[in-house]
Amino acid sequence: MGTTLIMAFALMLVIEGALPFLAPSVWRDTFRRIMLLSDGQIRFVGLASMALGLLLFVLVS
Asked: How many helices (H) and strands (E) would you count in the chain?
């Protein structure tokens, strides 16, 4: 299980790094927009992201 967790973390880093590498101006603009959101909106995005990840995890396993 440890190897799988490390592989999942590595894949997350590759995916997270793709946008700043390929389109840094889009990445910077996205963060500017995020800074304009309220705490509640950011929490909702985080919750939705976790729920989607959990759903995908359950469907795949």
From this structure: 3, 0
Q: Is residue 11 part of a domain?
A: no
pTM of the model: 0.69
Is 34 in contact with 42 (CB distance < 8 Å)?
yes
| Domain extent at residue 61 | 24-61
Q: Is 27 exposed, middle or buried (0-12, 13-18, 19+ CB in 10 A)?
A: middle
Written as tens digits, the pLDDT of the chain (61 aa) is: 789 889 999 999 999 999 999 999 999 999 999 999 999 999 999 999 999 999 998 998 8
